[in-house]
Amino acid sequence: MENYNSSLYSAIRQERIVILDLSMCPNVPKVINGFPYVTDIIMPTLTDNIPSIANCPKLEKVTFDSSTIKILKEKSFDGWPPIKQISFGEDFGYTLSFCISPNAQIDSLDFSLCKHMHLTKHAFQRSRIKSISLPDHITNLPEYVFCDCPNLASILAIGVIKINFKAFSGCNSLEHLKFAEEFYADKFDRYFNDEDYDTTRCGIEIGKDDKYSYIWCLTNFMFYYTERLSDEWSNRIFSFNHINQRSFCVFFGNIDIYSNYKDHYASNISEGFLKTSSRYTKITHNGIYVGSEDLQKNAIQNYYKVNKRLKTDIRDVIKQIEEEVDKLDINSIIDSYETIVSEWTKTKIGDDDTFYSETHRCSYYSDAYLETILPSYHSVYEDHGYTTKWSWTSKEEIDKMHLEDSRIREKAKKSYSKEDHITYLIKEYIQYIANKSAEVEQYLHIGRAKEVFEQYGFFHGKERVSELNKVIII
Q1: What are the b/e assignments for 271-293, b being 16+ CB within 10 Å?
Q2: Which residues, listed in sequence order, are joined to residue 20 by a DSSP beta bridge?
Q3: Alpha-carbon distance 125 to 143, whole Å?
Q4: What DSSP element (H or E) covers 370?
Q5: β-bridge mates for residue 216, sequence order
Q6: What's the pTM value of the predicted model, to 2 decimals?
Q7: Which residues contact 336 (CB under 8 A, 6 or more apart)?
Q8: 258-270, pLDDT tens digit by residue?
């Protein structure tokens, strides 16, 4: 049957053959076509040619040895009956682009034993496979390798550390992935290139009941829930993965990530944060734009700082401040207050000379209170050119600075009060917490989220977060 034989084909049809045993044939045609009564086909050894099957309406079973297959060309297994699993052997070599037919009903492909497998771009694109296992030596998933695989739910690829453009685009059924521990998970959503995917989130547990913990997401300002987290996660911001309207599980080495957003579900992954909304920019008090800054990320960092301070008893803080102030040799600190002017030039043959001037005024020790009586000052000046007439600071100007220093020192000695010093530092400590707490609330809305959360205590799990997300929090 290496070539089409009309007489042989006709004879098989006329005899209403139901089992077509080709196991002794050295080859098979590219297409096995037009056997209306055949229910079983037994294939010979398949290496370079996997035939497609057409017009065999009663075909239920194909028997073949997948361990002998060495290459998958375009549209392999086209027209074959449903196959639960195909396991390939050590000698398998190549997957060409679009190697699995879009019509092939294959549940699982297992390449885990293939020692020399080479994976190409577009290899499984548009196929309907449900799961796949790749050998350990595959470290790179090429571009579009699983693009538009609507049924693909599971990928086992424990050697993979890199994924290329649109490798998972259109894979809307993905539930389970396992990659190498070294895989870089940040910005994982970009591999999907799909607006429905947004896998990087950071959040905080704002409450819990007997069964669930409830998460306030600091990326999109929405509520989610998860199985009850351990108490160690209370008040900790953590990152988690998210896929809209998907069930999803990712393993990076020993790290398990599971999220089921069909029910607004989240799971803790690792401390830290991956992505913020980036909708805030820095503006000065007088309204002058001074550049872009992620104030939301700053607020997250301030949250940690404020929490750390709030965990310390204020009485211990006061005691520590008193002890620190008592240790200070205030007269020595005041006497050390002076202005130092450093100036020098650098000469480059065939190039501009450079003149540097730095003025620095301070004492050897300073804190918030001492800055009010011993204000520090720092300036840097730089100039270039072919000249020796630099703007050196004159002796008269330096003398004026030193005179100003002596006046400040004299005034500081007269005005200094240990009680005022301690009181000022205590107030500054409290004001810092107040200011940073206000900033945290302004950009993260954690306090407001907790208020809203408490209003829906009669709901649990999915029902609770569904109601919570109807409330607009700004």
Answers
A1: eebbbbeeebeeeeeeeeeeeee
A2: 41
A3: 10
A4: helix 370-373
A5: 204, 223
A6: 0.48
A7: 363, 364, 365
A8: 443 333 333 333 3
